[in-house]
Amino acid sequence: MTDLLTGKTILITGASSGIGESAAYLFAREGANVVITARRKPELDRVAEDIAAGGGNVLAVQADTTDAGEVQRAVAAAVERWGRLGGALNNADRTQGGGRLAEVTDETFDSVLETNFKGVWLCAPNCRR
Length: 129
Prior knowledge:
Blueprint: E1 9-12, H1 18-29, E2 33-38, H2 41-53, E3 57-62, H3 68-82, E4 87-89, H4 106-126
Helix pairs in contact: 3-4
């Protein structure tokens, strides 16, 4: 452990799988208090249980990063639990699902933009609390 993250509170979006999940384990092992968020509650709860079982400090908050109110709720829960945030990993993302560009619907395109760009935009100012 390097002590760089010890006692810091880090918000990680999209933490129910992939890079977000791996980052949550790593940050917790490095001593951070990790606030993990995702839309998928069962997967999020599994990650939180694994981190806690390994002795990590974790708070799981189901949240959709495209919803400003849900982002604010997650940040507020972190601040209530640990006083302040020390950083964030805005990892939540959505892909168009493969296939040809001509097959991508406007609805899918809007969903990708909302998650991949608006989600980061909403988290950034809220994480400065």
